[in-house]
Design a protein that fits this description.
- This protein is mainly beta and 269 residues long.
- Helix content is 7%, strand content 55%.
- It contains 1 helix and 18 strands.
- The protein has an 18-stranded antiparallel barrel.
- The two termini are 44 Å apart.
Amino acid sequence: MKKLIALFAVSAVASTSAVAAIALSGSASVSYDDNGSSASATTYDADLLVTGTAGSTTVTVGADVDGATFSTTSAAMSTTIGPVTVVADMFDEVSLEASTVSGGVIAETVDTGVTISLDAPIGDATVGVDNSGNVTISGTWSGITMSHTSKSAGDTTTASGAIAGMDVSVTNKAGATTWSLGTTVSGVALTLASSQKVTATFGLAGNTMTVSSIPAVASAAQDTTNYSTTAAASYSTVAISRSLTSGATLAATYSTADDSLTLKASVAF
């Protein structure tokens, strides 16, 4: 009997230890949109993220819990074995676009996979390869973070860093280059992207106003990979966000695209 009691005691301690290594976080929000001249609408969103850690191994599982059913949104595992890091993406996201005029992907693809990375003794470089055969070399040199991935569908190279007080990011994917610049002038955070989108954020953390200029979108015909894209005119948005003593955040966003005002209350834990 004493052995049985001891066994239960050990099991209880093991269970407590396992629970202590699990972290729960998430977010929830409710939004009211007057939709301009159209009918108003209220939407809800609630998400949970479970993170389990055992030694150098971490497992994360995300879920959308505001629908009629519990819906998985992510599942990944990462572990380190000496200089080798193994990351497994176990969740296959839905890549097929439901709308045929949004420029989304036509065919469903499988995006689960395993990536193995090795910290190479070349400065701060890391060399990785995934199960599709893509090879990535990344690292930080003189404050500039760079990454190059060799793919059969086209190489991707990214570089980012702070230069003369500006945050600069440049990406070249299969020959097409995109970039973004961010800086702060007289307390105003400014961001400019190659897409011609401009944002300016005023105020301090917890009490901000963000003004954004969204560029026009040109129409594009359907091809073998993507659906057609409907043309859209440029518009602007003004968003005011304030943190409340209750722990929630209240935001109001006005958009000139449809002359609408959206009120959103959210909380993260």
